[in-house]
Design goal:
Blueprint (H helix, E strand, L loop, with lengths): L6 H12 L25 H10 L2 H5 L18 H18 L4 H10 L8 H11 L6 H16 L6 H8 L10 H24 L10 H7 L3 H16 L9 H19 L2 H23 L6 H6 L5 H11 L2 H12 L5
Helix pairs in contact: 2-5, 4-5, 4-9, 4-11, 5-8, 5-9, 6-13, 8-9, 9-11, 9-12, 10-12, 13-15, 13-16
């Protein structure tokens, strides 16, 4: 009688048969920080994906700013919709290149778990306040290693942790799947930030540099397709994920345009200043009153400096919760 393979064994066989030599096979993971009993059905990367999706940090992303603070419309990007956008783009590229889609998806879903309320404005404020600095990619790793599950962490695999830590521009993940997420992050935020800025009336499509439109296209759909196609065409059967020089140059030009005309516009800077003052005041309050921190964060003080734990607490907040905490501390309450 023929041996009946388990679901996981079938997955291993499919990966051996169909994945690129440059892909990370699920049975070749470098493992976890703490050994665990294997799941009989899911691979380790599938387990990581599931742990991230069901984490509290992932759920909170729905109420964290991407670019525009507390927008009135229902169709502006949040940190959660950005994360799903990155995941979709990264999976498309990974599938085309025959890489490990489960690993790619896990990295994409976890890459921004440590992001602050109020977008990069919150990150910049905490980076100035904390003597150890603050970077959202490092905080994302701290979330999955330490903060989730009441201080136990999610105990993810090496490959997922590496991809989360190194997704930012200027870093380089050790796997191609991680590199795919890094490029997909740029593809996602450039295009949906343009859409949000146009929707908000900050810019029009006609304002975008003609040189960018000529290379990437006039619509978000065209630009994303061009970027994904470039990643595929320039990375197929290679040990590095790259874009063509013209597409990479156009993306850099578009990013510079967005900084000059959207991210640093007076309205955004004014709201960023308000958010910064609020976060600074809350940070200073907990420096002086550590006993007012929630118990789970007070427990962390046994092993970590106060400044680090306050950053843990503040960065975990949604925009709405950060405002509520500020109001409870500083705004007189009605009787």
């Amino acid at each position: 009688m023929a041996e009946i393979l388990s679901v996981k064994q079938l997955t291993f066989k499919k990966e051996e048969a169909f994945l690129s030599p440059f892909a990370v096979k699920s049975n070749e993971t470098k493992g976890r920080l703490k050994e665990e009993t294997a799941c009989p059905m899911r691979t380790e990367f599938q387990r990581d994906r599931d742990r991230i999706i069901y984490s509290r940090a992932f759920i909170r992303l729905k109420n964290k700013t991407q670019v525009f603070f507390s927008p009135e419309g229902d169709h502006y990007m949040t940190r959660l919709t950005h994360t799903l956008d990155v995941s979709q783009i990264a999976r498309s590229i990974s599938r085309a290149l025959a890489l490990n889609e489960d690993l790619t998806e896990a990295i994409a879903l976890g890459h921004d778990l440590g992001h602050t309320p109020f977008g990069h404005a919150g990150e910049r404020v905490l980076n100035k306040l904390s003597p150890n600095g603050f970077k959202h990619n490092e905080q994302s790793l701290r979330v999955v290693d330490v903060l989730e599950k009441g201080g136990l962490g999610l105990n993810l695999t090496y490959e997922v942790r590496d991809g989360i830590l190194n997704h930012k521009t200027g870093t380089c993940p050790s796997t191609l799947e991680g590199q795919v997420v890094s490029i997909s992050d740029r593809i996602a935020y450039l295009n949906h930030d343009v859409d949000d800025a146009v929707r908000a009336g900050v810019i029009s499509v006609e304002d975008l540099p003609k040189s960018v439109l000529n290379v990437l296209g006039k619509t978000s759909r065209e630009r994303i397709n061009v970027m994904i196609s470039s990643a595929y065409e320039n990375s197929l059967n290679k040990d590095k994920i790259t874009l063509s020089s013209d597409v990479d140059g156009a993306m850099k030009e578009l990013r510079a345009f967005m900084f000059d005309n959207v991210y640093m516009m007076p309205t955004a800077k004014r709201e960023e200043e308000r958010a910064g003052l609020m976060i600074s005041a809350t940070y200073d309050y907990f420096i002086k009153n550590p006993d007012k921190l929630p118990k789970v964060y007070q427990d962390l003080l046994k092993n970590y400096p106060l400044e680090t734990v306050i950053c843990d607490y503040l960065s975990s907040m949604t925009d709405r919760y950060a405002v509520n905490v500020f109001n409870q501390i500083f705004i007189p309450q009605s009787f």
